[in-house]
Structures are given as structure tokens and as C-alpha cells.
């Protein structure tokens, strides 16, 4: 996939907006589970909190500190997975990871997550962009500390 300059600039704007004003930022109390993510390559650290309603994610929040990509990705993730079932959230992460890692682009709607597609061209940033998702997956599985290493 090759992004036009114009699209790239637009995506950059959305990423910066979510970095400066992260959505669903802060501790969720009480939470059903939470998990911490750490990306030693970049120094990104964050914690993802979940509240479930049966099999559905009813609330998801995050807190922590990291680079623009990891923070924006976490913010966008909270918006996309709210209301999804465990299975749907898991499947979205798999496809999102494939979108970033290169290779064939999964045939699905990514919504706003699409703005992170440019990370494809910067393999070292993939860990930044997927950190919150690894933490989400861990929280969905009961919670733990995850490292991208
Ligand atoms: Zn980072």
C-alpha cells in the first residue's frame, strides 16, 4: 500500500490529535481486569483497563506514557473495541497487526485505525502501534504484564 502525501498528512494530524488529547485516558475504577504493556525498544509504558458486560467490552481505558504512535494507537483502540465482544476484539487485533506488519491487507473496515497504516513503512514502530493491543489481549485473558520483547 502506498499512501499519498495528502493522506499521510491527514493521518498524521489524527495521530497528533489523539496523542495530545487521548480518549478514554485514565484509570478505570472498578475494572474487571487490567494489563500492563511495556515496549523496551521505545520506552512506551501503558496500562489497559477493562470492564466487561458478559462477553462484551463495556468500558476500556488506558493510562501511561509513551511516544505519539503508542499513545494515539491506544486512544484509537479504546474507541474501536468498546462494545465489541472478546472474539471481535481479538480478530480486530489480528487483522490490525497484519495491516501494520506488511503482506496482504486484510479485507475489512478498520475505521479510524486506518490512520496507523503508515507504520507499515517503519517496522521499528510496529511495537509502538501494537503495544496497547497486546495489553488489551492480556486483559481480556485475565490480565498480566506483557512486554513486546
Ligand atoms: Zn513508541
What does this protein look like?
With 149 residues, this protein is an alpha+beta fold. It is built from four helices and four strands, in the order αβββαααβ. It is globular and about 45 Å long. Strands 3-2-1-4 form a four-stranded mixed beta sheet, with helices on one face. Helix content is 41%, strand content 20%. β1 and β2 (44-53) form a beta hairpin. The mean pLDDT is 92. α1 (5-20) packs across α2 (68-81), α2 packs parallel to α4 (126-140) and α3 packs antiparallel against α4. It has helices spanning 5-20, 68-81, 86-101, 126-140, and strands at 33-39, 44-53, 56-65, 145-147.
Helices, strands, pairings?
Elements (H helix, E strand, L loop, with lengths): L4 H16 L12 E7 L4 E10 L2 E10 L2 H14 L4 H16 L24 H15 L4 E3 L2
Parallel strand pairs: 1-4
Antiparallel strand pairs: 1-2, 2-3
Helix pairs in contact: 1-2, 2-4, 3-4
The chain binds zinc ion (ZN).
Zinc ion binds next to helix 2.
Amino acid at each position: 500500500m502506498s499512501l499519498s502525501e495528502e493522506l499521510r498528512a491527514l493521518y498524521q494530524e489524527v495521530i497528533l490529535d489523539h496523542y495530545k488529547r487521548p480518549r478514554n485516558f485514565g484509570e478505570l475504577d472498578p475494572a474487571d481486569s487490567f494489563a500492563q504493556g511495556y515496549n523496551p525498544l521505545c520506552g512506551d509504558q501503558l496500562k489497559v483497563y477493562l470492564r466487561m458486560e458478559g462477553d462484551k467490552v463495556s468500558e476500556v481505558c488506558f493510562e501511561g506514557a509513551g511516544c505519539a504512535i503508542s499513545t494515539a494507537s491506544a486512544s484509537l483502540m479504546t474507541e474501536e473495541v468498546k462494545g465489541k465482544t472478546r472474539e471481535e476484539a481479538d480478530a480486530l487485533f489480528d487483522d490490525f497487526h497484519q495491516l501494520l506488519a506488511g503482506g496482504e491487507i486484510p479485507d475489512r473496515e478498520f475505521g479510524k485505525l486506518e490512520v496507523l497504516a503508515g507504520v507499515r513503512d517503519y517496522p521499528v514502530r510496529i511495537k509502538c502501534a501494537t503495544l496497547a493491543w497486546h495489553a488489551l489481549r492480556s486483559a481480556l485473558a485475565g490480565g498480566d504484564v506483557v512486554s513486546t520483547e
